[in-house]
């Protein structure tokens, strides 16, 4: 990674929500997701360099708070993220997040960024990257079940990266579908609002499920999934939360990000611990095949993994250079003598007293 040239070590580039939105609009939503997708592919090809561990999760009756760390040996990154489905009833986001990159050589942070918006972008980019390797060739129609905050990003990412032209939408809350139809009306996609899940998947080659409730659910039943489909199961994941009927899993070739985490949180928590799955990095690096036959059902059991957030932060780190879409945050103590931190505090106290006089 190229380094920021900073005159003072105490300042860390910070991308606020306001600057993230300005940056996205400056580059273009489609291009940002394409850039993140490229970074994800680059990092998945070098997967074996990364520290990998299931995210550290603190569960409660209301939701979950998680830390997602990783490092490629040169740069360390982490994301703080929550998942609280009931928040929307109180006018709050289900998911909020922020993230950080640091230089492994000295431990100093080099970027702090909002990741509520960035997580939505990287989730959609990751979905589209998986579909690039797993979905039927020349697929043009996708169904999205669950039309909340992630819906539009998914539709736009699949249009940009996979060439999707038609999107069918369904949510148990019709207002969510109306919102998505409105937001995507000038996207160039052909949109269809559907009244049932069964109607939504009719004619689709790709099905995306992105619901938020933290419970065992059956968003897709076995009869809804025909041969040759690609399923993109991305709904908010945690132990005890699923979206697909178990029978679908047994009919599908299953692909994961980091399998030890997916066995805890993903659809495959319904299956035996030794059930065979393929990790996507193996497909991207050419070690294993993705889609093998036209009639095969492929399933991306996505739970989100720290390397993807690392990739998204890496993209943002590069994108803000030479721009005004960040601010310097006075975040790190930088005493003249690194052994004299107390003296730095004392000198500041004297300066404050002098200024007050």
TrEMBL record:
Fetch the Gene3D superfamilies from UniProt. NAD(P)-binding Rossmann-like Domain, ornithine cyclodeaminase, domain 1
Q: PANTHER family given for it?
A: KETIMINE REDUCTASE MU-CRYSTALLIN (PTHR13812)
Q: Which family does the UniProt entry place this protein in?
A: Belongs to the ornithine cyclodeaminase/mu-crystallin family.
The identity of this protein, by name, is Ornithine cyclodeaminase
- According to its UniProt entry, this protein's organism is Maritalea myrionectae
Its lineage opens with:
Bacteria, Pseudomonadati, Pseudomonadota, Alphaproteobacteria, Hyphomicrobiales
């Amino acid at each position: 990674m190229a380094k920021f040239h900073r005159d003072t070590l105490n300042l860390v580039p910070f991308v606020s929500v306001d600057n993230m939105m300005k940056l996205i609009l400056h580059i273009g939503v489609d291009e940002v997701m394409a850039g993140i997708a490229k970074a994800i592919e680059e990092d998945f090809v070098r997967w074996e360099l990364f520290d990998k561990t299931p995210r550290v999760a603190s569960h409660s009756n209301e939701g979950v708070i998680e830390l997602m760390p990783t490092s490629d040996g040169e740069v360390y990154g982490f994301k703080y993220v929550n998942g609280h489905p009931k928040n929307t009833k109180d006018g709050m986001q289900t998911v909020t997040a922020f993230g950080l990159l640091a230089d492994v050589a000295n431990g100093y942070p080099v970027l702090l960024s909002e990741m509520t918006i960035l997580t939505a972008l990287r989730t959609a980019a990751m979905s589209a990257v998986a579909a690039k390797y797993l979905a039927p060739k020349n697929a043009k129609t996708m169904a999205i079940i669950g039309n909340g905050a992630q819906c539009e990003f998914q539709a736009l990412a699949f249009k940009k990266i996979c060439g999707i032209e038609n999107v069918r939408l369904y949510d148990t809350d019709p207002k969510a579908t109306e919102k998505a139809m409105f937001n995507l009306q000038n996207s160039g996609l052909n949109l269809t609002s559907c009244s049932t899940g069964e109607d939504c998947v009719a004619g689709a080659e790709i099905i995306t499920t992105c619901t938020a409730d933290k419970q065992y659910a059956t968003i897709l039943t076995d009869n809804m999934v025909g041969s040759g489909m690609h399923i993109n199961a991305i709904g908010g994941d945690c132990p005890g939360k699923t979206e697909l009927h178990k029978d679908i899993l047994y009919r599908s070739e299953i692909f994961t990000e980091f399998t030890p985490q997916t066995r805890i949180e993903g659809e495959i928590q319904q299956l035996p611990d030794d059930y065979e799955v393929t990790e996507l990095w193996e497909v991207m690096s050419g070690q294993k095949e993705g889609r093998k036959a036209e009639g095969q059902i492929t399933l991306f059991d996505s739970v989100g993994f720290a390397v993807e957030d690392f990739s998204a932060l890496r993209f943002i780190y590069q994108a803000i250079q030479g721009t005004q879409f960040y601010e310097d945050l006075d975040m790190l103590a930088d005493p003249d003598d690194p052994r004299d931190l107390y003296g730095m505090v004392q000198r500041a106290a004297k300066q404050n007293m002098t200024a007050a006089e």
